[in-house]
Design brief:
- The complex is a heterodimer of chains A (220) and B (409).
- Chain A has 220 residues and is α/β, with parallel strands linked by helices.
- Helix content of chain A is 34%, strand content 25%.
- Chain A has helices spanning 40-47, 70-80, 96-105, 115-125, 141-153, 171-188, 199-202, and strands spanning 2-12, 15-24, 29-33, 55-60, 63-64, 81-84, 159-163, 191-196, 207-210, 215-217.
- A 5-stranded antiparallel beta sheet of chain A has the order 5-4-1-2-10, with helices on one face. A 5-stranded parallel beta sheet of chain A has the order 6-7-8-3-9.
- In chain A, helix 6 links the parallel strand 7 (159-163) and strand 8.
- The longest helix of chain A has 18 residues, at 171-188.
- The radius of gyration of chain A is 17 Å and the shape is globular.
- By secondary structure, chain B is an alpha+beta fold.
- Chain B folds into 2 domains: 3-46 and 269-407, no CATH class; 55-260, no CATH class.
- Chain B is built from 13 helices and 13 strands.
- Chain B has helices at residues 3-13, 15-50, 63-70, 83-90, 148-154, 203-209, 213-216, 244-254, 262-306, 308-316, 321-362, 373-398, 402-407; strands at residues 55-58, 81-82, 95-107, 110-115, 132-135, 143-146, 161-162, 165-166, 182-188, 198-202, 230-231, 233-238, 258-260.
- In chain B, strands 1, 3, 4, 5, 6, 7, 8, 9, 10, 12 and 13 form an 11-stranded mixed beta sheet that branches.
- The radius of gyration of chain B is 31 Å and the shape is elongated.
- Mean pLDDT of chain B is 84; it is low at 216-223.
- The chains are: A alpha/beta (220), B alpha+beta (409).
- Chains A and B meet through helix 2 and helix 3 of A and helix 1, helix 10, helix 11 and helix 13 of B.
Chain lengths: 220, 409
């Protein structure tokens, strides 16, 4: 599903990301684990096309994404990926329903006539059917992350990339959110790549990739 | 969920800033709207009235003053001309009508216009601006027909009487012709013309009221000068408007009078005097709009800086750079459009209020709402300026660095 080969990216003077080989099979639920600054978020950004590699191959769902043009990459990202962030990244002006709906707005995966019903169904699935019209500011942090999970999954993505999704949550809420995320990814048969520095969270996933040493000092 | 909806939601999310920006655009648009509408409408009405008669003939002097005093009852008359001259002009070939006008008195500021009964039957352009609403036209001296505005303002009714004051300036010191009262025999229908604020009577009344006792008693100079030897002016209708300039020259050269073409004088007034005022006011209006555009630019730019993360999220969700650029430009469009709509309404309200004032002062009823080519051009220019103001913030949004903006705390 996701393959990295000889991927190299300069990050600054004398610092670079380098990954010889990485492979996450279809349907995998894999933690990208490592200490802060080891390169796990950079790796996630490269996999999701938010950063371009300076060398190497990044293959996602059979497509070498480093070869895609800017607009093709936008479209690819809209169709294949779901994003979950540490700080939820909900859009403040929109209700929970519209935050989820906007997850389908920029791709053609789901027909427009189904947007509203599918958004409602996803919010009900994450137990937020009663907060459809609530703005993010009025939601608890746990509720916000559940909206973000609904948004990531609503477009039937092939891959979920989650960057420290429990980083802003208390342990009890984090546990509940992780349970929900793993259940939903399994139900939807979506590959999950989850960045975390928390070994306890990482160990809840069946697969683990140790990102230690991905960012190295290099001769400038 | 369209880009229009997304743009609107972000504007709504910062209501106060949006409303302030909309108001600033609206003020500029209102000023431009009001200036253009009032200018266009008043000129149109002036010219419409000016078209009623082909020429105005009066004493030599300022042709604009002659036109304003005789056609619009606005300025003081230039002086008198010999009645004999007017009668000769009336007999010229291609002169289809020449109506004498005698002025000298007012009642509560409204002019008493002495003329001939035939003027009351005068129609042009399918209109009859002398039509009666009640009563009858005069049949003898000292019977008067009053305009609708005069009736409304003074409370005079058919059968009521009044006396004229000598001169055109209201206030103390004027001579009142108390011994020669007029009786109202008719009230004109509201015409939206200067006639609404005029009082018409037989010209013999005006002559008689200004006849000096010494003249009537056969004094030393009684044979040399009678009020009835003169008229203030004459309104002339020609066989065709194409003859206006030819007749103007003929009359000016052949008689001791001055002929003026009303429409031409009004156009000169607008082009020379009011043209400058219009240009100054328009410049102020456009300056306000330019400043408003700057506030759109700054407002949007600041908003984009504040929501770089939101833009990055949308990009991560699959939005293209073009869609992000478009959404921001649409925000600028919304603000400008709302400013235009509010400004148009405010401008129409201003025109309505000033229109009521003009109706009182000039007797002109102007439309508060109009859509001239000048206005369409102005509104298009405002919209364009608003969109241009949106380009820089839109470009800033277009250049969103997704990874960096998502990583920022």
């Amino acid at each position: 599903m996701v393959v990295l080969e000889q991927v190299h990216r300069k990050l600054g003077p004398g610092v670079a990301f380098a990954c010889e080989r990485f492979h996450a099979p279809e349907g995998a639920q894999m933690a990208l684990w490592g200490p802060s600054g080891c390169g796990k978020s950079t790796m996630l950004n490269l996999i999701s096309g938010l950063l371009r590699p300076h060398a190497g191959v990044i293959r996602v769902d059979g497509t070498e994404i480093q070869k895609l043009s800017e607009s093709a990459l936008d479209a690819f990202r809209g169709e294949r990926y779901g994003f979950i962030f540490q700080t939820f990244n909900l859009l403040a002006p929109f209700s929970a329903l519209n935050n989820v709906l906007i997850g389908m707005r920029f791709s053609d995966v789901i027909p427009e006539k189904e947007w509203k019903e599918r958004s409602k169904a996803m919010l009900e699935r994450v137990n937020l059917g009663h907060r459809l019209h609530a703005k993010p500011a009025t939601l608890s942090v746990g509720e916000r992350q559940r909206v973000a999970i609904a948004r990531a999954l609503v477009n039937r993505p092939r891959l979920i990339v989650a960057d420290e999704p429990t980083g802003s949550l208390d342990p009890k809420t984090a546990n509940a959110v992780m349970t929900l995320l793993l259940e939903l990814c399994a139900e939807e048969k979506v590959t999950l790549l989850l960045v975390t520095h928390d070994r306890g969270i990482a160990d809840r996933l069946p697969d683990l990739f140790d990102c230690s040493g991905l960012v190295k000092e290099v001769a400038s | 969920m369209s880009l229009w909806h997304i743009a609107w939601s972000y504007l709504w999310n910062r209501k106060l800033t949006t409303v302030m920006t909309v108001i600033s655009v609206a003020l500029g648009v209102a000023l431009i709207s009001a200036v253009l509408t009032l200018r266009e409408q008043t000129q149109k009405r002036f010219e419409e009235e000016g078209q009623a008669f082909d020429l105005v003939v009066g004493a030599k002097g300022n042709p604009l003053q002659l036109v304003l005093s005789t056609v619009y009852f606005l300025d003081a008359p230039v002086g008198n001309i010999a009645r004999a001259d007017m009668e000769k002009i009336a007999k010229m070939d291609d002169v289809t009508a020449a109506f004498p006008i005698g002025m000298g008195d007012t009642y509560k500021g409204y002019r008493i216009i002495g003329t001939v009964r035939e003027l009351m039957d005068f129609k042009w352009g399918g209109r009859h601006p002398y039509a009666l609403a009640s009563g009858n036209y005069w049949t003898k001296p000292y019977e008067a027909v009053i305009g609708a505005g005069v009736a409304q303002d003074t409370g005079l009714k058919v059968g009521g009487t009044f006396t004229g004051m000598h001169g055109f300036v209201q206030g103390g010191g004027a001579e009142e012709h108390a011994e020669k009262p007029y009786t109202v025999v008719g009230i004109m229908a509201l015409s939206g013309t200067p006639n609404d604020r005029a009082i018409f009577c037989d010209i013999a009344s005006v002559w008689d009221v200004h006849e000096h006792p010494a003249d009537a008693a056969g004094g030393a100079d009684a044979h040399e000068h009678h009020a009835s030897d003169e008229v203030t002016a004459a309104l002339v209708k020609l066989a065709t408007p194409a003859l206006r300039f030819e007749f103007k020259d003929k009359i000016n050269k052949g008689y001791n009078v001055m002929a003026a073409v009303p429409v031409m004088e009004i156009q000169k007034l607008y082009d020379q005097l009011l043209g400058t005022a219009k240009a100054v006011l328009l410049a102020i209006g456009y300056l306000v709009v330019v400043i408003s555009s700057m506030s759109i630019l700054i407002g949007l730019y600041m908003a984009i800086l504040q929501r770089r993360r939101d833009l990055a999220i949308m990009r991560a969700l699959g939005a293209t750079r073009g869609e992000i650029f478009g959404a921001v430009l649409i925000e600028a469009f919304w603000v400008t459009l709302l400013g235009l709509a509010a400004g148009w309404a405010l401008g129409a309200l201003t025109c309505r209020v000033l229109g009521l004032y003009l109706a009182t002062k000039l007797g002109f009823h102007i439309a508060a709402v109009s859509l001239s080519a000048d206005l369409i051009t102005a509104y298009s220019a405002v919209l364009l300026m608003g969109l241009i103001a949106g380009i820089l913030p839109a470009w800033q949004a277009y250049r969103t660095d997704i990874a960096r903006d998502l990583a920022e705390p």
